[in-house]
Each structure stands twice: as structure tokens, then as C-alpha cells.
Design goal:
114 residues, mainly beta, 7-stranded mixed sheet, 4-stranded antiparallel sheet, 11 strands
């Protein structure tokens, strides 16, 4: 199983980023996928989750209305569109899959600062 995140970077407050997670090594379309984040000194925090068919999504209260999770079951990718970014969104963002056990990507750094 491989989960490879990309798209992080430095952005000013109010800006946007789109994160991508490329998945391989498992039947991607059969499983829900999630984005988590971890700021220094904190635990992993669920940001958003999407069902296997993309029909259901769940968001953390802190990102509702600003972030959108989506997936492409042909390309085996899950995306996180992040708009109206705030300094408190600064964290390492991880793609996560769960079947039998938890799988994590290597993470991508998002820094929101002026």
C-alpha cells in the first residue's frame, strides 16, 4: 500500500491550496479515505473523510465551508481543496486509509503565513 501526498506549500492567509493523494496497492474504490493534519505538539486531527463512492463526506467543524474533499476512483486519487486558509490551518497534512489496519502517507507541509 502506498499513499503519496502532494500540493502543500506556503500560502498567505485567505489563499488556497489543493492537496492530492495518489493511492496504490489496494482496491481504492472499495474504501473510505480521509485527510488528517498534525500541528507541532498536537495529535492527528481528522480534517475530512469521504465514502468509497464519494457520496458522503464529513468535515471537521474548523474547516466546514472552506475545505472540500473529493475523489477520483479511476485515477485512484483523493483531493482536498482548501480555500480561505487561516494561520491555524498550518500543519502537516496526511492521507489515511483504513482496512485491516491504518495506512498513512508521508505527509505534506501546509504553512499559512503572511
Amino acid at each position: 500500500v502506498q499513499l503519496v501526498e502532494s500540493g502543500g506549500g506556503l500560502v498567505q492567509p485567505g489563499g488556497s491550496l489543493r492537496l492530492s493523494c495518489a493511492a496504490s496497492g489496494f482496491s481504492f474504490s472499495n474504501y473510505a479515505m480521509s485527510w488528517y493534519r498534525q500541528a507541532p505538539g498536537t495529535e492527528h486531527e481528522l480534517v475530512a473523510r469521504i465514502s468509497s463512492d464519494g457520496g458522503k463526506t464529513v468535515y471537521a467543524d474548523s474547516v466546514k465551508g472552506r475545505f472540500t474533499i473529493s475523489r477520483d476512483n479511476i485515477k485512484n486519487t483523493v483531493l482536498l481543496q482548501m480555500n480561505s486558509l487561516k494561520p491555524e490551518d498550518t500543519a502537516v497534512y496526511y492521507c489515511r486509509a483504513f482496512f485491516a489496519r491504518v495506512y498513512w502517507g508521508q505527509g505534506t507541509q501546509v504553512t499559512v503565513s503572511s
